[in-house]
Amino acid sequence: MTFLELVTKLFGNKAQKDMRAIQPVVDKIKAEYEKIDKLSNDELRAYSASLMAKVAERVADKKARIAELRASIEELEIDKREKVYNEIDKLEKEIKESYKAVLDEILPEAYAIVKSTARRFAENEQVVVTANDMDKDLAADPRFDFVEIDGDKAIYFNHWVAGGNEITWDMIHYDVQLFGGVVLHQGKIAEMATGEGKTLVATLPVFLNAMTHEGVHVVTVNDYLAKRDSEWNGPLYMFHGLTVDCIDKYKPNSDERRKAYACDITFGTNNEFGFDYLRDNMATSTLDLVQRGHNFAIVDEVDSVLIDDARTPLIISGPVPKGEDQMYDEYKHRVELLVRTQTTLTTKLLTEAKAKMPSEDAKVREEGELALFRAWKGMPKSKALIKFLSEPGNKVRLQKNRRVLPPGE
């Protein structure tokens, strides 16, 4: 027996250790399922709503404080804004930590809810609940064929069109899917053979992390799978009030795509997610952005997306026609000239400000204050300017000109 075989026999391999660590979580899920599956359909939805409320309550104070800080920024002096932004960054980090803690706490209940929902759809042609506003909106939307309203009831059917084909929901989570769902929530890779229900596994961590309403991205390798999976699994999420869409259905930088990103759960291909991210980084206005903050993502076929298809960035960084014609060399001297001109002008303006601001003539003082404002706009990090602003009263006079700008400024 080799040393490696001896160690494995004594201590087990990594897979066995991981399974032993996750087994207690799976046992908790199954215990919660025994209780949750006895609830009525309305009680099941109320239970999931209570978990979402619990998640929101855990970060409510921090979010309110961030909103308060953002509203006050414009009224603050320049040198005090950095402190506020640092506090906002700290609060946002704390919110992420709070989300992680509360999601880990409610994971067994959330996974049990998903399993119970899947069981109800698999065993019943119709799942009837008391209709709410979202049920009515879904029933009125021509894109969805799985729900209709009858009086004060919403009837969810267990068959609908996904990927152009009529499907009937017939899947229920087994232990292997529960194991995989825990692994994915932990940010790890779950390797599963064909037929072990990879699509079903994803419903667990997607549902759990969507409870924050901060957005979950489900990344697939092609647009057919993105559209099919959004339509296939969508009804399970929508049954509990979560919004779902697929970015590949809409044109880049369109309002429809922006709304898809605003959903609780957003499906799409790695290429479209990637290029939307690049386009957002090149946007000149926040109105042109389509994505919101990145919260949680599930990558389907991760080996293909992150290895086989990782050539996508080469489209941007690869060779270009006439690569020997470097625009850097062409424009370098122009940029240098522009910087020198800007430095000369701001230095002149600062000199003018220093000369005119002490004047007893009000008009001359105003001219000096305006020159100071222009110098600050042209080169705010100039050491000479910063030193001048540190002198008593100068920063206040700069602030006055920031709030009341002359025409054309």
Please describe what this structure looks like.
- The termini are far apart.
- 28% of the residues are buried.
- Mean pLDDT is 87; it is low at 403-409.
- The longest helix is centred in the first third of the chain and has 46 residues, at 78-123.
- The protein has helices at 3-11, 14-36, 41-72, 78-123, 133-140, 175-185, 198-210, 223-238, 255-261, 270-281, 302-308, 314-317, 327-356, 362-378, 383-389, 394-403, and strands at residues 126-130, 147-150, 153-157, 159-162, 165-168, 216-220, 244-246, 265-269, 296-299.
- It is an alpha/beta fold and 409 residues long.
- It has a four-stranded parallel β-sheet, sandwiched between helices.
- The radius of gyration is 29 Å and the shape is elongated.
- α3 (41-72) runs antiparallel to α4 (78-123).
- It has 16 helices and nine strands.
Write the layout of secondary structure elements.
Elements: H1 3-11, H2 14-36, H3 41-72, H4 78-123, E1 126-130, H5 133-140, E2 147-150, E3 153-157, E4 159-162, E5 165-168, H6 175-185, H7 198-210, E6 216-220, H8 223-238, E7 244-246, H9 255-261, E8 265-269, H10 270-281, E9 296-299, H11 302-308, H12 314-317, H13 327-356, H14 362-378, H15 383-389, H16 394-403
Helix pairs in contact: 2-4, 2-6, 3-4, 4-7, 6-7, 7-8, 13-14, 14-16
